[in-house]
Amino acid sequence: MESLSPSTGGVKTSTTSISEETMVGDLENQRVNLNSSNPRGESNIGQHGVDVAAAEAEFMELSRQLSGLSRRMTHNSIRDAQHSGNGVKDYEKGAGEGDDEQFDLEAHLRGVEGEERNAGIKPKQIGVLWQDLTVSGIGGVKNYIATFPDAFISFFNVFGTIRSIFGMDKKGREFDILKNIRGVAKPGEMILVLGRPGSGCTTFLKVIANQRFGYTKVDGEVLYGRFGADTFAKRFRGEAVYNQEDDIHHPTLTVGQTLGFALDTKTPAKRIPGMTTAEFKERVINLLLKMFNIEHTVNTVVGNPFVRGVSGGERKRVSIAEMMITKATVCCWDNSTRGLDASTALDYAKSLRIMTNIYKTTTFVSLYQASENIYEQFDKVLVIDSGREVYYGPTREARAYFEGLGFAPKPRQTTPDYLTGCTDEYEREYADSRASSTVPSSPEELEKAFHESPAWTALNEEMEQYREEINRKNEIHEHFITAVKEDKRLGTSKKSVYTIPYHRQIWALMKRQFLLKWQDKFSLAVSWITSIAVAIVTGTLYLDLPKTSAGAFTRGGLMFIALLFNAFQAFSELASTMLGRPIVNKHKAFTFHRPSALWLAQICVDLVFASTQILVFSIIVYFMTNLARSAGAFFTFYLMILSGYIAMTLFFRTVGCLCPDFDYAMKFAAVIITLFVITSGYLIPSQAQGDWLSWIFYINGLGLGFSAMMMNEFKRVTLRCTSESLVPSGPGYNDLNHQTCTLAGSKPGTNFINGGDYINLTFSYNPDHLWRNFGIIMTLIVFFLGANALLGEYFQYGAGGKTVTFYAKENAERKKLNQELNSKLQERRSKRGQPDESGSNLKIESKAVLTWENLSYDVPIPNGQIRLLKDVFGYVKPGQLTALMGASGAGKTTLLDVLAARKNIGVISGDILIDGKPPGTSFQRGTSYAEQLDVHESTQTVREALRFSAYLRQPYEVPIEEKNAYVEEVIALLEMENIADAIIGDPTTGLAVEERKRVTIGVELAAKPELLLFLDEPTSGLDSQSAFNIVRFLKKLANAGQAILCTIHQPNASLFENFDRLLLLQRGGECVYFGDIGKDAEVLLNYFYKYGAHCPQNANPAEWMLDAIGAGQAPRIGDRDWGEIWRSSDELKAVKEEIKRLQESRIAEIGSAPPVVDKEYATPLSYQIKLVMKRTNLSFWRSPNYGFTRFFNHIAIALLSGLCFLDLDDSRASMQYRVFIIFQVTVLPALILAQVEPKYDIARMIFYREQSSKMYSQFAFALSMVIAELPYSILCAFGFFVCLYFPPGMSTEPDRAGYQFLMILVTEIFSVTLGQAIAALTPSAFIGALLNPFLLVTLSLFCGVTVPKPNMPKFWRSWLYELNPFTRLISGMVVTELHSTPVNCAEWEYNTFTPPPGQTCESYAADFLNLAPGYLRNASTTAQEICQYCAYRVGDEFFEALDLSFDDRWRDFGIFVAFVVSNLAILFLASRHLNFSRR
Asked: 1399-1437 as b/e, with b when 16 or more CB fall inside 10 Å?
C-alpha cells in the first residue's frame, strides 16, 4: 500500500480541472509501478507500519476513480461491439493494431471490486484445510476384455446384472488413491498441484472441490472455513467447483450463448446500483471475452471433435470462462492449459493470479507442462507421488528442498519439471557422491523425509494458526454467509445451493433449449420434411376414405399409423438423453440448475416445436383422408397425437435416465415398445388379449391414444354397408331382410351401421370413455415427467470414478514377446546415466526433400472466402527435426494438413514438390501423419494396432517377422511395454490421454515412412517428462535420417533445443520466421534482435518469441508487422535460394536412379481384404454389447409376439393373426438400422483416417463390414424364427418352415445392408436416424397389410407397391403359411341371415356361393332358421382376393434377394465416391 501514499504521488481529489486523459495516464503509471515492484500483489509493510485509515481512504478514492474509468471502458466496449455487429476480426493486422487501447484486466477488476464495495456487496472468501485426507477407489485387478459369449454369461447372472445397473458391482479391490495428505490454503492463495500422470492430482482436486462421487471412501477432515465437507455440500455446493481436463459443451451453441446461459443462472441479486440484469450480463461476457482474447468468437459455435466450431485452444478458454462465471470461492483447475500456446497459457495464469488477489478466491491448479513464468504466479506447491504428499509449501522453497534431499540440481530445467522429475525413479538424478541408497527414493521414503523436515513443522504450525484464526474471526464467516444469501435472487430458498429460484432455472433452460433446437437448422429441416412427406404419402394412400364398410378397417390403420409415426419420432430422445449426461453433471456441480429443471424446460420447448409440426401433419392427413368434418373431431384427433408424442418422449427420457448405458436402454426400450404396440388394440383387439396382457392397455400411451382416436372418429360416423360386405350379394339379392352386413355392429333389415357399435363389438371400445382415456394419458405424462425429474436428480451415471484399462488375454506368442520387452526395459534402466543407445540401430534410407513455395490456402465461408495460409515458403529435409509453432488459431494444423495432402475442401495455391516434382499417387502412403485427435479402432490392443499399420503400410515384400520385430522396437522406444496388450478403448474406458497419444505416434512410426513424418501436437496433454521422451525419440529418428515436421505447444527450453529448425506462424497464416534455431536459440534470437526485439536473459525463447509477435494479450514488440518484416528480409531470400538449390541437386541425383513404380497402396487388394476382415471380425467379437443387444431384442420381440398369439386355432380371426405375426417380421429393419448405422459411422471415421494414409481401399472396408455382420445376422434370424414361428403353431412342414426361415434370414441381411447403405449415403448416423422413420413407414404402408393392394390408389399400386421389398417379404410368407390351410369359423365369426320363405339356405345362396369364397355351415336350413356363412373355406381364398399367388413365392424370394444385391451396390458405390470427412 506504500506506493499509494500521498508522499509518492497519490491521486488528489481536489484537482478537478485535470483532464480525464491525464488522470487515466497517472493512474496507469501508478498501476504499472505498483505491479513491477510487487508482481504478486503481496503486502510489503515497512518497519514503521502504515496509516491504515489514510491508506483505506485513499484506496477507496482510487477505486472510485478506477470505477468511473472502468464504467466508461465497459460502455465503450459495449458500444463498439454493437457497432461492429458480426464482423469478422481482421487477423491480418498485428496484435494491438486497430484496437483503441490495450485491455487491462487488473485495472478493470479493481474498478469493479471498488464499485461492489461501495454498493455494500460483501466479499466472499473462504480457505480450505485438509488433514489426513485418504481417498480410496476400485482397481488393482487386471481386467480382461469381454467377448460375445461373455455377454450371455453375464446376462443370465441376473443378480450381477442388477448390481451392475445400480452401480453396486465392484470389479476389483479397493486401494488408496491418496493417503494421509494434509495442508491449508488461505483466501487469496494459489496452489500448484504437481505429480506424474496417475499420481492422484485429479482425485485431489475433485475431493477439494467436494466432488466425491465415484470413490469408495473419503477419510480425513476437509474444512471450508468452519464448515465440514457435508455441511458445505448441503449449503454451499456451488462455492467449490472443479474444471475438468476435457471441454464439454453444447456444440451448436455459440460462445456468447454458452456464457450467456451460465450468467442467466448465476447473475446475483445484489448488483451495483443502477445496473440491470442485462447490463450485468453483457458486461461480464465482454470482460471474459477480452480477458481470454476470444472476442472474435462470440458468434461462433463452440463445436466439438465432430461439429466444426472454435479451435481447441479457444474451446478450452470458453471452459475456463464458464467456470469463472460461477464466482466460486474455491476453484480447482485440472490441466486447464492443455491445447493452449505458451503465451495464452501464461495470460491465463496471470488472469487467475489477478482474480485470486482481488476477489480472495482459493485457487488450486494442476498443470502438466508449466513454464517458469507460470510457476512464479503461485504461492504454494503440492507435490504428490503415487498418492502420497512429498512436499507442500511455498513455491520459492520447493526447489531448494529437493536439492537438499540429495537430488542433482538442473538449472536449465523449469522448477515444475524438476519437482515432478524428482518423483520419477527413471528420470531423477542424484547429486555428486549421492545415490538411491542415501537419498529418499520411494514414495514412502519421500513422504517420511517430508514429515521430518522443517517444511512439515511449518505446515502444521500454519494449520494450527489457521484453525485459531477461523475460530476467532467471526466476521469473515458472517460476510461469507451474508454474501451467499445476497447472491440469491428473489424467490430462492435460503437453504438452496442455487442462485436463482426453480422457476427462473426452468425459464433460463427453456431459452437455451429453444436456441439448441432452433440453431440446429439441418435436423429441424429434415424432421419437418420427413413429417410432411409421411403426411402426404399417408394422405394419398388413404385418400378420401369412404363412409362405407370398405372404409372401416382402413380408418383404424390410418389412426394407428398417424399416432405411431409421431410417437416414434421421440425415439431419438434416448440417445440425446444419454449423450447429454456429462453436461448435466457439470452444470449440477456448478449449481447452474437442478437436473429436474432441465427435463421440465425441455418438455415445454418440445411442446412448442412438436405442436406446430404435428398440427401441420394432422391438417394434411385429416383433410386428405376425409375424416369426420367437425372442429371438435379434428382438434381431438390432433390432441391425441400430440399427447401420445409427449408421453412417448417422456417415456424414452425416463429410460435414458434409468439405464447406465445405451445397450441396456435399447434392450429395455425394445421390450416395452413391443408390448405397447401389440397391446395397443390394433394388432390384437383387447377382447382377444389374455388377462396377462390386457392390463398393459391402461399404462400404454399408444393404446389409450389409439382407442381415443377411434372413439373420436367412429362415434361421429354412420357407415353404409356396400355390396361387397353384404351376404349374400350379387344379382337377384335385393332384399335387406334376407341379407346381412359382415361388418360388426350391423342390424338386420338395414345397411347402415353405427360407428360406435362397430368399435364396441370389434375393439371393445366404448365412445363414452374417450375423455377418461385422455385423462389416463395425462396421468401417464405427469408420472413420466415426475419419474424423469426424480431420476435425473438422483442418478449420476458418468459423474465420477476413474477410467479402467482392459487387456487381451496372453497367448504363448504374446507372453514371450512381453517377457522380451520387459527384460530389455530392465536392461535399459540398469544402464541409466550412460549414453542412450536405443534407436541407434535405426537407419532410414530416404533422401527425399519436401519443399513448398508461395503456399496459400483459401476456404469458403458463407459470405465469401477466407485465407488461412498466406505465401508460406519452406522445406523439410532428411536428418532434420523442424518445429512448426505459432499462436492458437494461426494455421499450424492447416499447414500440416495441406502439406500431408489431407485437405479436400478449399483452394490450395503455390507449389508443393518432392525432389522438385509434384507428389505422385504414393505420396500419402510414403508419409506418416500423427494427427491431433487420437482416432483408433477401440477394440484393438496397442500391439495389434501397430502391427496392422506395419502390415499394410510397409512394403508387401518385407517379411512378416521383420515387421513384427520392428513393431516390438517401436513399443520399446515409446515405452509402451506395460500397455502392449491393453485395449485402446475410448477416452472413458480405455487408455489415458497420454497413452493414447503414444499409440497415435506408434501407429505412424510402425509404417516406417519412406518420405516424411508429420506430427500435430504430439506433446499436447502429456506431462513434461513424457513430452521430453517423445521429442527425444523424434530427435533420434531425425539423426537416423528421417525428415520430420512437428507442431508443438508450450515447449520448455530443454525441449526446444532438440529442434533443428523453426517455422513460426502468426495469426492469419503468415510466416514470420523460417530457419535454424541454433544452440541456445542463438540464430533465432539474433534474427529478432536484428529487427528490434531483444530477448531477456532469463526468458524461454520458445515463449518469448510468441509474445514478441503478439500471440497473447500483450502487444507485439516493435511498430512493424513481423510478417511484413519477414517478406522483405534477407533470410527469406536465402530460404528461396536454398529451396532452388535443393530441388536442382535432387533432380540431378534422381535422374540417374532407376524409375520407381508409383503404387497407391503398399499391398494388393486381396491382402487388404484379408487383414481388414480379420480386424473387423475381432472388433465385433470384442464388442459383446453390440451383438448381444441385437440378439436380445430379436428374441424379446419374437417371444412376446409369439406368446401373444399362442396356439392359434383354424378360425378366421386366427388366420388374420397369422398375417399380423408375419407383419411383425417388418419390425426387424427398425431394430437393426438403429444399431447398424452408428456402428458403420464410427468404423468409417477410423477408415477415413487410415485411408488418408493409403492403408487399404474403401472396397476392403465396406466388404469387411458386411461380412462381419453375417454370423450375428444368422444367429439373430434363427433365434427370431424359433421364438416367433413355433409358439403360435405356424406350419411345421419342412418345405414351408424352411422357406419362412430363409425369408427371415434374407430380411435380416437386407436390413443390415440397408442400414450400411443409408450410413454410407449420409454424413452421420444422426442424419441417417432422421431419415429412417420416413423410409420404414413408407415400406410398411405399401406392402399390402395396412391397405390391401386392391384398395390402394392406382398411382401407388402401379409402382411403389411393386418396388417395395416388404411386398415380397409379406406376399411370400403369407401365401406359404396360408396355402391349403383349412378355415373353420368360430361360433361368433359366422355371418347370419335368413332365407326367404320356401327356400333353404343352400338354394337361396347358391348363386352367391358360385362367385364368392367361403361356405355355408347349415346348407339345408329352412326359412324358420338362421343361415350361417363363413367367409373363407381355405387360406388361399383369403390371399387370392389380395392378388397374391402361391406359385409366385420363389419369384418373390428371388426379387427380395435382388434388393439385398442392390443395397450392396449402393453401399460399395457410396463408400467409394462419397467422402464426408470435410477438412
From this structure: bbbeebbeebbeebbbbbbeeebbbeeebbbbbbbbbbb
Q: Grid coordinates standing for 1334? A: 420416413
What confidence tier does 1421 reach under pLDDT thresholds 50, 70, 90?
low
pLDDT tens-place string over residues 1245-1260:
899 888 888 899 999 9
The answer to whether the CB of 1083 falls within 8 A of the CB of 921 is: no
To the nearest 10°, report the CA torsion of 1098, 1110, 892, 874.
-80
CB-based contacts of 472: which residues, under 8 Å, 6+ apart?
Answer: none
Average pLDDT, the chain: 83
Nearest CA to 165 out of 791, 581, 800, 659 is that of 659
Q: Can you tell me which residue has the cell 358360385? A: 1410
In sequence order, which residues have a C-beta less than 8 Å from that of residue 162 and are 6 or more positions away? none
Three-state SS at 860: strand
Dist CA 775 CA 769 (whole Å): 10
- Closest C-alpha among 767, 703, 746, 748 to residue 552: 746
> Residues 6 or more apart from 1291 whose CB is under 8 A from it?
1297, 1376, 1377, 1381
Q: Which residues does 285 contact at the CB level (< 8 Å), separation at least 6?
A: 256, 259, 260, 263, 298
The C-alpha cell that represents 948 in the structure block: 496392422
Rounded Cα gap, residues 990 and 602, in angstroms: 33
Phi first, then psi, for residue 129 (nearest 5°) are -125, 130
CA distances from 39 to 8, 35, 43, 337, 869 (A): 19, 5, 11, 21, 38
Sequence-distant (≥ 6) Cβ neighbours of residue 315 within 8 angstroms = 247, 249, 302, 303, 309, 339
Amino acid identity at 455: A
Among 1001, 1019, 1091, smallest CA distance to 1056 is for 1019
Check: CB of residue 686 under 8 Å from CB of residue 697.
yes
Distances in Å between the alpha carbon of 995 and those of 974, 978, 1001, 1047? 10, 10, 10, 19
Arithmetic mean of pLDDT, 196-214: 88
What residues pair up with 861 in beta bridges, in sequence order? Answer: 864
Q: Which segment, 161-165, 312-316, 1015-1019, 1108-1112, is predicted with the most confidence on average? A: 1015-1019
Pairing, β 217-224 against β 227-228: antiparallel
The residues with which 240 forms a beta bridge, in sequence order, are: 330
242 forms bridges with which residues in the sheet?
332
What span, in angstroms and rounded, lies between the C-alpha atoms of 827 and 815? 18
Q: Where are the alpha helices (DSSP H) in 38-91?
A: 52-84
| Count of all residues that appear for the chain in the document | 1479
pTM of structure:
0.81
> Taking residues 598-617, what's their average pLDDT?
93
Q: With CA atoms as reference, report the closest residue to 511 among 701, 281, 289.
A: 281
The side-by-side arrangement of strands in the sheet containing 927-930 is: 907-914, 850-861, 864-876, 1070-1076, 1061-1066, 881-886, 1043-1047, 1012-1016, 927-930
Q: How far apart are CA 718 and CA 755, in angstroms?
A: 5
Backbone angles phi, psi at 929, to 5 degrees: -135, 105
Among residues 558, 286, 241, 742, the alpha carbon closest in space to that of 1337 is found at 558
Give 585's contacts (C-beta < 8 A, 6+ positions apart): 796, 798, 799
How far separated are the first and last CA of the chain, in Å rounded? 55
Displacement of CA 857 from its chain's centroid (Å) = 30
pLDDT the model gives residue 45: 33
Res 33 pLDDT > 60: no
Nearest CA to 232 out of 359, 123, 364, 330 is that of 330
At residue 51 the predicted structure's pLDDT band, cuts being 50, 70 and 90, is very low
Question: Is residue 1221 within 8 Å of residue 1288, measured between CB atoms?
Answer: yes
In 238-281, DSSP assigns E strands to: 240-243
